Amino acid sequence: MNDPFIREFIFDEEQQETLLEKLKEKEPEMQRAGVYNSERGSFTSETRTCDHIPFDYLEFPDISLELGDLALELRPQLTEILFRQYEFIRYEGNSGQTFKAHTDDNEEASGHGRFLTSVTMVDKSEDMRGGLLKVWTPDGREFIVDLDPFETIIFPAYYWHEATPVLNGRRVVLISWAERKCCLLYTSDAADERSSV
Q1: Residue 161 near residue 133 (C-beta atoms within 8 A)
Q2: Total Cβ atoms within 10 A of residue 194
Q3: Model pLDDT for residues 145-180, shown as the tens digit of each residue
Q4: Are 47 and 100 in contact (CB under 8 A)?
Q5: N- or C-end of the chain: fewer Cβ atoms within 10 A?
Q6: What pTM did the predictor assign?
Q7: Is the Cβ–Cβ distance between 10 and 152 less than 8 Å?
Q8: How far is CA 132 from CA 46, 101, 144, in A?
């Protein structure tokens, strides 16, 4: 098996500024993030205590391409994928916000059509404590990842992962998932509903 994930700095200064501007625009609209299952739909849960705002991936076609290129380094066989379902997720230390261990899909990507998960650190306060990304591979290895600003990690969406509680300060990440291009037939309403997974 190849490396369990790939992490790199892939966005240039202009792309970083664009993301920061979009975050500034969208942050006032952030709401409590939910989780999703087929029986209950989207609902709030103590397993996910953070705020988020989804937005249209078509606003950032160049960022989708950068993520796709990085993904091909990890999984060269996934040539027909596109990163979409963007959202900013904010974790703050005033209440130890977290997203406990979870997966974003199953190994066949039959739950939500997600093959890969990407996480990019967009904003990280200097006084932040906690807020690490933990990733577990199917063979039981645990990786603890402390992303720097505008560093991106991509891993299979079926890997268990967790955002540990932010004990002080804040972190804001950009999340996106890779789906098969042929499967992108969802309406924007359906995509918004599924983004809260």
Answers
A1: yes
A2: 19
A3: 999 999 999 999 999 999 999 999 999 999 999 998
A4: yes
A5: N
A6: 0.86
A7: yes
A8: 18, 12, 7
